[in-house]
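Note to self: user wants both folds in one dump. Writing first protein now.
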Amino acid sequence: MRTFVIGDIHGGLLALEQVLKRAEVTTQDTIIFLGDYVDGWSQSAEVIDFLIEFKKTQNCIFIRGNHDQLALDWLENRHEDFDEEMWYKHGGRATVEGYSKISPERKKDHIAFFESLKDYYLDDENRLFVHAGFTNLNGVVWEYFPKLFYWDRTLWESALALDPNLKPDDLYYPKRFTVYKEIYIGHTPVTRIGETVPINKACVWNVDTGAAFKGPLTIMNIDTKEFWQSEPLNELYSNEKGRN
């Protein structure tokens, strides 16, 4: 039995199907999804359909991404603190267009799926899985602002900026990086630093390899760190823009 983690999908069902096949995932494996299933490519609704069916035969853990929360707010007509124009610019338009083609019954199933998502997952080996990050120095249980689980970027920015010569027992070593054995995140694509593979900084593994844009989708074995990738999403959806 293996445990895999999958980065941000952003409506790219073709890529999701590719990585599951390339990693030769079986029903004995556990899959941890880091969120952002929607917004970007044209198959956001189809991704949710796939995941709803997938979890019936597969041990899955689904984390909430910021785009998933935005989609849920839209589906439930919650418009307070919701900038619809900004959401459209960042992938929401494709989601709205996709949902215009599905039945009210399917929408109800999708709302139930979005509402069931976890803010984070902590395994038996003290490995944390969260979409974006957290800010409380003592860890996720103490976080004052739960929205930061799917909006924060400071955890990854701090990991990138950390002097690699600092040791965990150093006075200046960030306490956030001493709480967990490993932290797995998505949210901020590594393409921003010119990469398209999972990147490890301090104890943080960033598995968002830019599938919303021109990067591939990635699935990684958390024990061996072996990973498999889809074709770049802009090639799989060559007639679309995604979030580019």
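First done. Writing the second protein, which came from a different request thread.
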Amino acid sequence: MAKILKIYPDNPQENLVNEVIKTLKNGGLIIYPSDTIYALGCNIFDIKAMEKLAQIKKVKLEKSKFSIICNDLSHLSDFTRPIDTSVFRFLKSHLPGPFTFILDANKSLPLAYKNHKTIGIRVPDHPIPQLIVEKLGHPIASTSIKDDDEIIEYSTDPELIAEKYDHLVDIVIDSGYGDNIASTIVDLTSGEPEIIRQGKGII
């Protein structure tokens, strides 16, 4: 059964955040809030956790397109090829924010991302995922939680999310109602921004 932790952005309790970190380090899966929608996350360096994430999303791990959640741009060089100054300035002007930026991947990606030519980078404008990544010491893999409802595409109620994913994840962070608009996906591999999916973020 998933453990529900009520962690609020204005005053995140350190002991609860530490419990989340311990779970991630032990290969557990979490559901966490962001500046857009609730999402599934795990340790990018734990291949078994990544495989579980892929199973939940019903995709093969090698074909998955899980975003990498960072707390700032300092991790970029760990996962991406060197980027132009103009692209870096563009990223800096839009992050933290509700965007997923597609960049050229380097050859030092974690095992689960092996052979990926591009990678999606997110820096959510939300203190909880930022704090998780900061305390964990490295980014986490992430994918959005979709709703079965035909009208509402994304789940917003953490209690309903916890009920649905009860036996699939280890922790659900309840941070109040989430948004139901996903991030805007922007491809920067050509050097010029190309919107792949219009979401919450406005370019």
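Dump finished. Worth passing along: The chain is about 25% helix and 20% strand.
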